[in-house]
């Protein structure tokens, strides 16, 4: 299967079956799942911990498999939390995207990051 | 749209357009996006920080909107990282799920969490 | 040495020497160190990921060494960031404590966590 | 007070009193405190989320107060966890530093970060 064919529903269903077959609903509570997502996010960060931002753009092909697995773990726990909360994840994501589009009008924020005031620009350019 | 109709491809495309329209590809690098996911995961955790695991099962309906938004932010950055890495996210997630299914055979792990040895069971039962 | 004898200055100095001897100042930048603290915090969380809050109160003695090491890693990176920022850490911590004391007057917050409205109290008691 | 005069014991004592006066020992459990450290670490990261590593070296003076407060919050929760676990924090940190010194011999790791294989060096130099 691929991104073109797989719906959020497909993934949520597969994850729900995985959890149910192991009687892990008792562990997959919102508090525990939020910790789990944060833990997997940290494992993802570990790959980039000492790299410059620029170096992180040029990852070795061998690194991609590991990085994909960490990203998958994050999504997996997000699916499980959606299942617990009975949340339509696609709808929730699309509504948040629409909110972000209004919050950050393209013409106003183009090419600017948010916290640009936090550092001293010594070059005259960002 | 809903989970039944929305593919990963739909969401990735919408996110790619959001980033491109703002010329934010320069910020949406793997290093920065891994931090972003971790930051949003922490905002999700904040809702459960002082709750017991049990209390986190019984969330007030008013809390669900906020929690959905935090979860959406995590997924949004995960989509953006998939875009950057040119990763088939559905495929990556499904392969990781298959790996987890082999790693944790249902009959062996049923009802057991992994780190059960870390606490002293004073009741004779978990 | 022990908590009674060791000052923050002692620890910061030891850490500064460790970093300098390895020529790691180039890596120990604020951005990287903030990631490092978050990564170590996640490793600490991993020990409690699937435990109830109550179970986390009753840790097996064997777990304490591992947990102490994760906590040490967090503090170590915090010391290194203090060194980079030329920050008087004791002073910074004591001022934040004083601020928290004013923000959370004992008589008003006694026995209450902050986000208590996030769950439905079904028992009539917290 | 300052880093030269303040011991870990001083800080732990002040924190223990803060928690006790509010009857917050019930919330300051290892599971919750590990989440709290991760949450504060994320708030620290937020300041550097979109900066390059280099930009994070040149912080605006106005940013330092905010950053100091986030770092203080991390240390504050680390102190509270040390109190809960009855841990000599200075001793734990110094033993971990000694372990790191053995693990990363200066002459072998000088100027090298650990995960240097994760990116493609296109310049012939790191």
Strand element count of chain A: 0
What oligomeric arrangement do these chains adopt? homotetramer
| Largest interface, chains and sizes | A-B, 78 and 78 residues
Distance between the termini of chain A: 42 Å
Counted by DSSP, the helix tally of chain A is 5
Shape of chain A: globular
Indicate the low-confidence ranges of chain A by residue numbers.
Answer: none
Which H/E pattern describes the elements of chain A?
HHHHH
Report Rg of chain A: 19 Å
Name the average pLDDT of chain A. 92
Q: Tell me about the biggest sheet of chain A?
A: none
Structural class of chain A: mainly alpha
Helix percent of chain A reads 55-70%
How much of the sequence of chain A is in beta strands? under 5%
Account of the 3D structure:
The structure is a homotetramer of 126-residue chains. The longest helix of chain A is centred in the middle third of the chain and has 25 residues, at 61-85. Chain A has helices at 8-21, 30-46, 61-85, 89-103, 106-109. With 126 residues, chain A is an all-alpha fold. Chain A has five helices and no strands. Chains in contact: A-B, A-C, A-D, B-C, B-D, C-D. The interface between A and B is large, with 78 and 78 residues.
